[in-house]
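EI: anyone free to look at a 335-residue chain?
SC: sure, send it
EI:
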Amino acid sequence: MTALAYRCHSENGRVVARLENAAPPAASELEPGDVVVRVAWSDINFKDALAVTGAGKIMKRLPLTAGIDLAGVVIASADDRYRVGDPVIVVGCGLGEEHDGGYSDFAVVRAEWIVPLPAALTLRDAMAIGTAGFTAALAIDHMEHNGQRPAAGPIVVTGATGGVGSTAIMLLALRGYRVAALTGKPHAADYLLGLGASEIVPAGDLPSRVRPLETARWAGAIDNVGGETLAWLCATTQPLGNVACVGLAGGHALATTVMPFILRGVNLLGVNSTYCPVEQRDRAWARLAADLSNGSLEKVVQRTVDLADLRGAFDGYTTRQMIGRTLVRVSGALR
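SC: here you go
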């Protein structure tokens, strides 16, 4: 049986990606703990775009199959926890970075990476969530573990039109928070309000120079941008508020002072979806399924592409023009 995989190679110092034929592994080739998944759906994250275009050094080795997320059905297993026919999810865990990823008809994954598909979700739903939604859920989980509650005041979400930002807005609004969406895309206001945002904050309104402490405005924040935006968030967060740092679309540098942390007790929380304990991973997916199994995910799904049509699907991410989530339909690509 032949299959397709979207593989990245290094050619003349550049990353070059293309569809290739790829044979599924034989059961006899599996190591203990290996599980073979027939991939039904994947998605596109900002990290995928950086990897495939070479705009960021995401992949630790080449050649490599791209795609940091996948959802599908087990077709072979060398681990007693999973049987043929089980629907499963794998997000992050080094897929598309250190290990062959989800842009393939078949994927070999380690059993410990797998999350069984929650009964309330379809495989397509799982990829509408993907690493982006999972990261948003982790950010909120960290904040609430640190005492964040709706009564404290509004939460601002930066990079609001992206996958993490969009899902964070939905999740926060569903949990009773007032949400401000910070965006540089004024044309996306209706989209963001439809997700549950109660206020749109234009990115252009941020000061050109951030003082060590600004007027305390936010009870908390989820930041996808980094750089000056993250410094501004720290300076404008209320006493004992939480700022969850999840991305660096605006830069990796952080020029701030200790003033927000020692005078207001602001908490800067790092969120990483790859190095996540199994218990926390399972808890986040259970809550995602409970919160988002009511059809609301369709609000964030803006585009669906087939595996065979991936070329060119990443450009809008590197130019910061994409809104919401893009799904990759993999199952129809089997030859």
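EI: The longest strand covers residues 34-44.
SC: 👍
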